[in-house]
Design brief:
single chain; 58% helix; 363 residues; globular
């Protein structure tokens, strides 16, 4: 079992099972040099184990410090989210709170157990430029003249304020972009730090976590804990989830994520629905299957090309023509280049590195 899964077991399992998982995780990981992504579920494990009768581990005290740090930063980000939502509301820009900000606020009772990396807000593509323009005078910078170009190439733009807090301004709910009209139709009213706003429905929240887990598979597995929390709340419309997966050409990604949750026992997932989606996935187009496989491949130019091709195909099938980037722009967006010449230069350097590896013995 991988160290990430051991930590998740310590965070999510009950009683002695969590304690055994913690002991195995501690035997396999050094807290002094553990990567940050691995430790993102540590505050949740701390809350699950702390105070358990008969359980005593000196290392758990070190995790308490991480829990307190998470709690403090989350308070800052929640306050920032409320302020940002108020600014957008005053400008007539509708926004949806989602990602880690929404999950930590709505699905975790303890504000210190689920780290928020950045404020995540979703606006409609037509409002993205106006939203960025409104936020710049308030100290949120990073887009500038790039915003109009970014809207056709990416799914989000990262902004930062003067104290180093991050905002991801999204115009698509997923890096595997598709039509989000259903997200807006089913959004629910919530409140964060006194500011009323919209959030994704439980069904769309689960879909977003499954895609996020596939797309960010090289990083934290916190998406598993998030998905388990969303499912446990009992508000997921499984029929609509399957329909969204089919409509967005995400059956391969969604079926794989749900099968993992079902097999691991971390969440109660309808087995029949998973089997249906797996049958659909076997009939998916070659480009969809190649794109889904690329999400789990090692980083390389070929991996990015496959993801870009699948993303553009999905956008062509679900979005108006004017919102679909050209082939070069689609690749450009995933690599985050500012000038097209950088794309060509990086491609040549990648080919050079590949040639040197072939010519060097023992590599």
């Amino acid at each position: 079992m991988r160290s990430e899964e051991l930590l998740l077991n310590a965070a999510l399992r009950p009683g002695p099972e969590a304690e055994r998982a913690w002991a195995r995780w501690r035997a396999s990981v050094s807290l002094d040099n553990a990567p940050g992504g691995l430790l993102r579920a540590a505050p949740l494990a701390y809350r699950n184990l702390a105070g358990r009768p008969g359980f005593d581990d000196a290392d758990l005290d070190r995790i308490r410090g991480l829990y307190r740090k998470t709690w403090a930063k989350n308070q800052l980000l929640r306050a920032a989210a409320a302020e940002l939502l108020g600014l957008l509301e005053s400008a007539g820009v509708e926004a949806i709170l989602f990602g880690g900000t929404a999950l930590s606020t709505l699905n975790y009772e303890d504000p210190g157990v689920r780290p928020i990396g950045a404020v995540d807000l979703l606006v409609r593509p037509a409002d993205a430029g106006r939203a960025e323009t409104m936020l710049a005078p308030a100290g949120w910078n990073g887009g500038g003249a790039e915003i109009e170009r970014a809207i056709r190439r990416r799914d989000a733009l990262r902004l930062e304020d003067a104290v180093g807090l991050d905002l991801n301004l999204h115009w698509y709910s997923s890096p595997l972009s598709a039509d989000d009209s259903s997200c807006w139709e089913h959004a629910v009213a919530v409140e964060i730090d006194g500011q009323r706003c919209l959030a994704l429905s439980a069904t769309d929240q689960l879909l977003e976590r499954l895609v996020h887990g596939a797309y960010r598979s090289e990083g934290s597995m916190l998406w598993v804990a998030d998905a388990a929390r969303v499912i446990a709340a009992g508000q997921v419309d499984w029929g609509r989830l399957a329909a969204e997966a089919r409509g967005r050409r995400l059956t391969v990604v969604v079926a794989r994520g749900l099968r993992y949750l079902l097999r691991s026992g971390w969440a109660e997932v309808p087995g029949e629905l998973v089997a249906e989606l797996e049958a659909d996935a076997r009939c998916a187009s070659g480009w969809e299957r190649a794109g889904a496989a690329a999400l789990h491949a090692r980083p390389s130019p070929l991996r990015t090309l496959r993801i870009a091709r699948d993303r553009r195909t999905r956008m062509r099938q679900t979005l108006p023509h004017e919102q679909v980037p050209g082939p070069v722009a689609a690749i450009d967006g995933l690599f985050r280049y500012r000038r097209r010449g950088e794309l060509i230069g990086d491609a040549l350097r990648s080919l050079g590195r590949a040639a040197r590896r072939r010519l060097t013995p023992g590599t």
